[in-house]
Amino acid sequence: MLAGCSRFNRATQSMAGALTMYKPEVVQGNFISSEQVQALRPGMTRVQVRDTLGTPLTTSIFHADRWDYVFTMKRVRVEPQKYRLTVFFKGDELDHYEGDEMPSETEFVNRISPKRTPKVPHLEATEEQLARFAPAEGAAAPADAETEAPASAASSYPPLESAAP
């Protein structure tokens, strides 16, 4: 009886190991690339900054001259990523910004996408394969489509303008 219990226990543990809890990916905030940060210039208006970076994640009535952009991403088997950028204004113009070093768009895509090596097809044709598409020597060239098209078009469609009486 004890042997049966230990066998049941091992089977239950292996089944529990095969079944894992679903953990969804959590993406929050605005992704800001290093290219977007490089486009920021002191003196830009709030509208220009919003056009460059997007709508800020948080604004505060207590800090009207400050916009915060935060981006976090939690994925299974990947270290959590968190980036922060704070933009400061004087009146309606950008004064300065501070925050984390942002990745470029390419670096960010490489971090979130699984590494895949694309399969490139073999793109080489033999002379025999190419000969099938070349016209045979001495064969008549195809009729010029431009000279033939107006005649057939004129006979199948009514005139665009009617003659005035």
UniProtKB/TrEMBL annotation:
It holds the Pfam family BamE. One of its GO terms (cellular component) is Bam protein complex. Residues 131-165 have a biased composition (Low complexity). Residues 29-96 form the Outer membrane protein assembly factor BamE domain. Gene3D superfamilies: 3.30.1450.10. Transmembrane segments: none annotated. InterPro entries: BamE (IPR026592), BamE-like (IPR037873), BamE_dom (IPR007450). Its main location: membrane. It is found in: Cell outer membrane. GO terms for molecular function: protein-macromolecule adaptor activity. It comes from the Bacteria. Part of the Bam complex. Belongs to the BamE family. Part of the outer membrane protein assembly complex, which is involved in assembly and insertion of beta-barrel proteins into the outer membrane. This is Outer membrane protein assembly factor BamE. The lineage of its organism: Bacteria, Pseudomonadati, Pseudomonadota, Betaproteobacteria, Burkholderiales.
